[in-house]
Amino acid sequence: MAKTSAIKLRPLPDHLKVPWGLKDALVVFLCAWIALPIVLVIVLRILTPFVPLANQFAKALLTGDITATFALTLLDALAGLALVAFYLRKYKAGWQMVGWRAFDVWRAAGYLLTIFLAFILFAYLALQLVSLLDPSFNANQPQSNELLDGARTNRHLALIGLVIIPPIIEETIFRGFIFPAISRRWGFWAGAVCSSILFGLAHMQANVGVYTFILGVLLCFMYAKLRSIFPGMLLHMLNNYLAFLALTGK
After folding, report:
1. Where does the pLDDT of residue 250 fall: very low under 50, low under 70, confident under 90, or very high at 90 and above?
2. How many CA atoms lie within 13 A of 28 on its CB side?
3. Distance CA 82, CA 174 (A)
4. Nearest C-alpha neighbor of 248 from the set 164, 166, 142
5. Nearest to 171 by CA among 205, 204, 215
6. pLDDT(3) > 70
7. Largest pairwise CA distance in the chain
8. Helix spans in 134-229 (H)
9. Is 221 helix (H, G, I), strand (E, B) or coil?
10. Rounded mean pLDDT of 87-102?
11. For residue 217, how many other CB atoms are within 10 A of its CB?
């Protein structure tokens, strides 16, 4: 028993000792992935009858216009970063507290290659294991959203909206904000696993959730070692880019 307690109480690296707690992390997750999108839709509905531009924007969204979809994606991402900024201001902390720090390029390159190869292996094994345990699980279920559908009309906007923007906001929130908050309460591995479960759930698709969980745990490990979330953003972007190429057929 004493040995187990010692493991749980093992000190975190200094850069993971954040002033916010578990409650703050849950609020940020619920707001960024549930409340903010709902609020944006409600505000748009309220403005639509009175503001012609809002009305045009709503119609463009309904028709699947990629420019409107991209604008909504960008607005949602900025709102998420604003939420993080609110908490940083509340705790009198700078952006370096969520991992926006300089890093050793050569050391990071080694980790990027190792973690990427580990991700390919572990993601494959995890998908095969889940398929074995649940025969109804479809490991090859296609992923689709408005930006992917709009890639045919504006590939550049789709690329930015799927490959560039999500890693910036997701690494900041999940690895920079949520992961250290949970680790502060329950330890490093609990923080890595729990934040990665939330990361997987945020993607709202079973097969995507499985491999994003694996990616999340590995990115937590890399953040702990490199003290910066920027290498994780780069790896996340690489993963999204490869998925983008596969899903768009180019």
Report:
1. low
2. 31
3. 15
4. 142
5. 215
6. no
7. 66
8. 146-149, 155-159, 165-170, 179-186, 188-201, 206-226
9. helix
10. 97
11. 22
Cα separation of 233 and 189, whole Å?
Answer: 20
Residue 84 DSSP SS3: helix
CA dihedral 238, 232, 112, 191 (to 10 degrees): -130
Residue 7 pLDDT class (50, 70, 90 cuts): very low
CA dist., res. 217 & res. 175, Å (int): 9
User: For 24-49, what is each residue's pLDDT tens digit?
Assistant: 999 999 999 988 888 888 888 888 88
Across the chain, mean pLDDT equals 90
Contact 99, 228 (CB under 8 A): yes
CA distances from 208 to 8, 26, 139, 142, 199 (A): 30, 22, 8, 9, 10
Tell me the mean pLDDT in the region 11-34: 93
**What is the residue type of 155?**
R
